[in-house]
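seq:
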Amino acid sequence: MITNLAQFQATTRQLWQAWQAKTITSELIFEMVMQNPTLCTELVQRALPELEVGPSHLVNPQQDVHSALLARAVRYDIYAQDEAGRTFVLEMQVKDERDLAERIR
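struct:
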């Protein structure tokens, strides 16, 4: 519990530094950026340059999709549709290259 101004300022400074250190690989930042239809369309177009991707008009973070075949739900990081009705599922995967390099040695 914060009991004085100095503690409050220190806590606020720590929170601000943690926020400033976040990148697109952070789930929160990824969701915030991808909810902007223009940015979402740009990312899909860069990932799939062979497609002519129209503007996204539906972007949902943490979209649950239920499947009778699997008898369970699947949660996608970002579920988007373009004007042509095509669906794009975006997943953020992050791996620590240092950990991989150490396992290879």
